[in-house]
């Protein structure tokens, strides 16, 4: 078993806001993150896959192909976008880092080769805050 | 002998923005600013470095007390910009495009009034890890 990790980054706007709550309750729970006109982050995405090394190539998976999957199904959809308004796979979800990591997992999973398992999606919202999702 | 010392203070704010010139058409804006023109905004973690240069005060040993510098930046910059939309929430960008260059110049102008005129001031603003600006150049 070997692990392969790819780093990507994207810049996006969002706000933390539960539409079922009043403005006051949103501000009480989410504070400045509920700012009506959005705020934004430089997100750093770290994706780790795992599996056995292919004897013919020496690869677990061609890192360029992993990069292409991340670009097409994640970064191109969210980079320089508004997570609440522009991103189809975040529609109807609270745009927290936790939910975004889960949604990114779901975006990547169907596109991996059969012999490669997704191990971890790690997402930094700021240099001091990150979440990790291992699929369970 | 030059006895000047430079003191640096780093702070961060997270904000949304878009690059857009309202005097140009949507198509011209798209061509000029690309994905940075995205209508519903995007955002950044802005890393701000404030450089203050001057002679060391013989009484305190400081060029400037970094706690005081931090409080000035916190009160006049971070509270104003953090978790805001630069285009919509910040008065100075109602007509000014919020590029890193213009943000740095606005920050300089605000802080210049708050920091003793005998001290030199420089603003370094990282919009991403790879892109940053410095003012005055």
Question: What report would you give on this structure?
Answer:
The complex is a heterodimer of chains A (about 140) and B (about 140). In chain A, a hairpin with a 2-residue loop joins strand 4 and strand 5. A 5-stranded mixed beta sheet of chain A has the order 3-1-2-4-5. Chain A has helices at about 25-30, 65-80, 95-110, and strands at about 1-15, 40-50, 80, 115-125, 130-135. With about 140 residues, chain A is of the alpha+beta class. In chain A, about 30% of the residues are buried. Chain A has one domain: 6-pyruvoyl tetrahydropterin synthase/QueD (Tetrahydropterin Synthase, Chain A, 2-Layer Sandwich), CATH 3.30.479.10. Chain A starts with a strand and ends with a strand. Chain B has about 140 residues and is α+β, with helices and mostly antiparallel strands. Chain B has one domain: Tetrahydropterin Synthase, Chain A. Chain B has 4 helices and 5 strands. Chain B has helices spanning about 25-35, 65-80, 85-90, 100-110; strands at about 5-15, 40-55, 85, 120-125, 130-135. In chain B, strands 3-1-2-4-5 form a 5-stranded mixed beta sheet. Chain B starts with a strand and ends with a strand. The relative contact order of chain B is 0.21. Classes of the chains: A alpha+beta (about 140), B alpha+beta (about 140).
């Amino acid at each position: 078993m070997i692990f392969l990790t790819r780093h990507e980054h994207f810049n996006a706007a969002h706000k933390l806001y539960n539409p079922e709550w009043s403005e006051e309750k949103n501000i009480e729970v989410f504070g400045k993150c509920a700012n009506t006109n959005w705020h934004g982050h430089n997100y750093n995405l770290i994706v780790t896959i795992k599996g056995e090394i292919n004897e013919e190539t020496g690869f677990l998976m061609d890192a360029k192909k992993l990069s292409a999957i991340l670009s097409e199904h994640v970064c191109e959809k969210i980079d320089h976008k508004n997570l609440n308004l522009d991103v189809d796979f975040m529609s109807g979800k609270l745009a927290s880092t936790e939910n975004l990591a889960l949604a990114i997992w779901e975006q990547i999973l169907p596109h991996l080769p059969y012999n490669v398992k997704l191990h971890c999606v790690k997402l930094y919202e700021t240099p001091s805050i990150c979440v990790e999702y291992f699929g369970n | 002998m030059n006895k000047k010392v430079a003191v640096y203070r780093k702070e961060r704010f997270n904000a949304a923005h878009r690059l857009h010139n309202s005097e140009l058409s949507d198509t011209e804006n798209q061509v000029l600013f690309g994905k940075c023109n995205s209508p519903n905004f995007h955002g950044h973690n802005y890393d701000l470095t404030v450089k203050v240069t001057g002679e060391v005060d013989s009484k305190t040993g400081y060029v400037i007390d970094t706690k005081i510098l931090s409080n000035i930046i916190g009160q006049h910059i971070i509270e104003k910009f953090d978790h805001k939309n630069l285009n919509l929430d910040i008065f100075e960008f109602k007509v000014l495009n919020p590029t890193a260059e213009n943000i740095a110049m606005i920050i300089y102008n605000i802080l210049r009034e708050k920091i003793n005129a005998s001290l030199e001031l420089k603003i370094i603003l990282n919009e991403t890890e790879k892109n940053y600006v410095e003012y005055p150049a």
